[in-house]
Amino acid sequence: MICAAWFALHFLLIAIVCLRDTFSSLAQGVSGPASRPNELWSEAETIASAGLGGTLAAANPVRQGLAAYENFAGIEAGYGYFAPSVPSSSKLVFELHYADGRVEYELPHAGGAAAGYRIATLLDNIQRFHYAPLREAILKTLVYSIWQEHPDAVMVRAIFGVVNFPSAAEFRAGTRESYDQLYTYNYRFRSRPSRADAP
């Protein structure tokens, strides 16, 4: 009986996550059926989020328990409807400032295709985070890895945004992609990196 209840709860959570992500795509107008944002889909997304504890306080034990189980089981994301249109793509740029006034730019990089895919997925998920301290902590980790490669930099600015791609008709008319900056974080450093120096 306990196993059957757990099985039912697990697949109910998967269904709710799937619906929430699908409604989110429809609310943003990034799919064929909803070419522009729609309030109905926004309300449906809110209801689905409520089923996952999203409307409860961040410190609520029910919300924390559901979030912990979803993350532990790997069902917190990735079950949404994939629309036929090309979604916005997240972009992170590091602006490195040196003591002599030089400024350099770096993009996140990875050691292989699999790691690159994970970084791209992480960046796409960062824009969904409504909890600013979590978003900042993740970006701080990425900034620190870049600073280790450029230890003479005295400040690293992380600039996070999305690249918006035009539709096929807009592209034929000469419109090209545009960039919307969402978040900027500045991190200052004083000395060469060591294990104890993390920002």
Helix percent reads: 40-55%
Poorly predicted spans: none
- Provide the spatial order of strands within the biggest beta sheet: 2-1-3-4
Category by helix and strand content: alpha+beta
SSE succession: HHHEEHHEHE
What would the average pLDDT be, to the nearest integer? 81
Number of helices: 6
The amount of beta strand, in percent, is: 15-25%
For the sheet with most strands, the description reads:
4 strands, antiparallel
Q: Globular, elongated, flat, extended or rod-shaped: what is the shape?
A: globular
Number of strands: 4
User: Between the first and last Cα atoms, what is the distance in angstroms?
Assistant: 49 Å
What's the gyration radius in Å?
20 Å
How would you describe what is shown here?
The chain has a 4-stranded antiparallel beta sheet with strand order 2-1-3-4, with helices on one face. Strand 1 and strand 2 (103-106) form a beta hairpin. The model has no long low-confidence stretch (mean pLDDT 81). Helix 1 runs antiparallel to helix 2 (39-51). The protein has 6 helices and 4 strands. It has helices spanning 2-28, 39-51, 61-73, 113-126, 132-149, 168-172, and strands at 89-98, 103-106, 153-164, 178-188. The protein is an alpha+beta fold.
